[in-house]
Amino acid sequence: MQKDLQLFTSLAEKLLTAENNDPVVDPIPTSELYEQLDLTLSEEPATDTYFEETLEKLVLNTPRTATKLFFNQLFGGRHPKATLGDLLAVMLNNSMYTYKVAGPQVGVEKEILHKICDRIGYGNDSDGTFAPGGSMSNFMAMLMARDAHAKAIPTEGVTKKMTVYTSIESHYSIPKNAAFMGIGREQVRYIDTNAVGEMVPEKLSAQITKDIAEGFAPFFVNATAGTTVLGAFDPIKPISEICKKYNLWLHLDGAYCGGVIFSSKYTHLVKDIELTDSFSVNAHKMLGTPLSCSIIVTQHKKHLYDSFSNDAAYLYQTDGDDYNLGKTSLQCGRRNDALKFWTLWKSVGSKGLEKMVDNQFYLADVARKYISNHPDYTLYSFDDSISICFNYKNIPAQRLCTALYQSGELMVGFGTFRNQEFVRLVTINSGNEKKDILHFFKILETFVEAHPSLVQSEVFQQ
Ligand SMILES: *Cc1c(COP(=O)(O)O)cnc(C)c1O
Questions:
Q1: pLDDT for 100-158, tens place per residue?
Q2: Which among 196, 207, 172 is positioned nearest to 269, based on CA atoms?
Q3: Number of domains comprising the chain
Q4: Residue of 253, 287, 292 best suited for mutating to test ligand 1, as the one with most atoms within 8 Å of CB
Q5: Host domain of residue 299
Q6: Same domain, 185 and 252
Q7: Is the full-model pTM beyond 0.70?
Q8: Beta carbon of 381 within 6 Å of any ligand 1 atom
Q9: Does residue 390 lie in a domain region?
Q10: Does 169 sit in the ligand 1 pocket, CB within 6 Å?
């Protein structure tokens, strides 16, 4: 083991150096993947030297998601304290289902859940768990809602046409989960958004009334705190009033931007969050924790138990349900996703988490200001969002982002809103500074200048 730990340290150091010198790795085309790297598995063991060389090559050719030039997805950076926690979780290799096996790590997880419930004003009956990602947190929410709506479903199955409501801008896990759950993709109702991408409550209400009149059984509304493309926040209060009226479960999908609960400056974006039945947040997005770290909490501990507990005499042999976390989790064996968030939170405090979130919004302001001051850019996104959507010199966003990626210059993606396609810069790496954001634009502009065909072909197309 010691020898492999030394190898680990040496590889990690090489990676850090490489990330510094070369923040974007030249991608290996899929057609050359198995030629450039020896990924084969064979009957015979590899020699130590060959194993080490191959591993190093693999590590150094993998996309670098922790660098200052990775803006491609809704995560980024590498907080050292969180990374430390995750490395320790691997070493300890507990499974979180029982206190007997996880011991004090159960307390770590419970402390995080408890503090989040407190912070968002959930009452004494609240509880939660760590799910394998935001999609699965949404799945758990929808399941609790389904079972709360009709207790018989877990035993008898779904017998009526149940409907789900979510905005047109929400995450794709909603229809996917509806399919998993026997509800059906066709029973998902996509509610229109306003000009800034927020769900329109009147449209929600109208759709529910219509469905009830047609014999459907509405049971679940998903609101989003930070839509995946624009980073928009659905208005909680009016949606919650509709949910109360029709007795529907209200979930707030905060996978992307639920982290604003830590910022006194931005928590207003999820104002009235205490009116929701469940809330999920990915600490691996705004809160700088390694993948994956997704938390779901609910005001109704009872429903969490009702939907997820199952007796198992071979598993639950000591301690009470409150400390045997397998009684409320989706999985059986479950890795310790809590420790990395705990080491981060413990070391920087809630105030440190707040600073991270505030810095992301600050960097977004920097980017928006830059775009607004430069006539070659068009801005499509709005204030109070860390997704900055823009086009440069009218270059089709897909073409620009792909060219930047293939040349190993910059990792940034594109998105669409109302048929408008644009580059989506996400300022989620809280380790970045103003100069890093300005550097992003500089690289992009220099690249375009060196590749005039990007601009010309667009003019030609028009
Ligand atoms: C990222 C995201 C998810 C999915 O989270 P995963 O951890 O990737 O499964 C769900 N909802 C929203 C709004 C997201 O941005």
A1: 999 999 999 999 999 999 999 999 999 999 999 999 999 999 999 999 999 999 999 99
A2: 196
A3: 2
A4: 253
A5: 94-343
A6: yes
A7: yes
A8: no
A9: no
A10: no
